[in-house]
Design a protein that fits this description.
single chain; 10 helices; mainly alpha; elongated
Length: 254
């Protein structure tokens, strides 16, 4: 019995050794790729310029979310939808992902004419080598600046011009973009808060009416929110609230 066990163990070790040797032989015949990362000497200035352009492109891509929020209609849309959710009192409904997604796609819809102008006036000529990189950047900035100037209040522009301590501009071309962007941001926030205040009024009236009815009935222990929430949702559905709000928001940028 003991001899059979030793014989079986020996056969198992022999088979394992043969399998390992076969696998090693096959693995040795397979080509193994190598990866090298390092810094080398550039042979001409063009290689350095291309590397710098790639570095600038990666930097712009890393700042893309901030650019999307600062220089487009995204801020106003997201803030207004958040105000709407709090005004109705549905807590986390619709979820944050839905609000951000809706704001994002509405931003694409609103900004499409601007981006189309950028493509026609800057991107296409630059790709066809008709204009230089500096000229393309200037041409791309013009429609974006025009959009921001249209939505920015003069009072906010004056504030940041004074804070930047620059000379009084004669026209919009004299206002730097770094001054325009924060002025545009606070103008968008002010507009969003104004719209949010208007949204709160009808739902506030419903809360007050329900609270008065419950108080007159002596039901002081019953939270008014539990009773008013269905009525607020019903009112919002009956007036087709999403159609009115989204339509008004989009028209406010036109």
């Amino acid at each position: 019995m003991e001899n059979k066990r030793r014989r079986a163990l020996g056969l198992g070790l022999l088979a394992t050794t043969l399998i390992l040797l076969t696998a090693g032989t096959v693995w040795g015949q397979l080509p193994v790729p190598t990866l090298k990362v390092g810094l080398g000497e550039a042979k001409n200035p063009g290689e350095v310029s291309a590397l710098l352009q790639i570095l600038m492109l990666l930097t712009v891509l890393s700042l893309a979310p901030a650019i999307l929020m600062m220089m487009t209609s995204f801020t106003r849309l997201a803030v207004v939808f958040s105000f709407l959710r709090h005004a109705i009192g549905t807590q986390q409904m619709p979820p944050n992902q839905i609000i951000i997604g809706l704001s994002l796609f509405l931003t694409f819809f609103i900004m499409t004419p601007v981006w189309q102008t950028v493509k026609e006036s800057a991107w296409d000529p630059y790709m066809n080598k008709k204009i230089s990189q500096e000229q393309a950047l200037e041409a791309a900035a013009k429609p974006v600046r025009a959009f921001m100037f249209k939505q920015t209040r003069e009072k906010d522009l004056a504030l940041f011009i004074n804070l930047a301590k620059i000379a009084q501009p004669k026209n919009t071309n004299d206002i730097p973009t770094l001054v325009l962007i924060p002025a545009f941001m606070i103008s968008e926030l002010k507009t969003a808060f104004q719209i949010g205040f208007v949204l709160f009024l009808p739902f506030l009236v419903i809360d007050m009416v329900v609270s008065s009815i419950l108080l007159s009935m002596g039901m002081m222990m019953l939270p008014p929110v539990m009773i008013s929430l269905p009525f607020k949702i019903l009112l919002f559905v009956l007036v087709d609230g999403w159609h009115l709000i989204v339509g008004s928001l989009v028209k406010s940028f036109l």
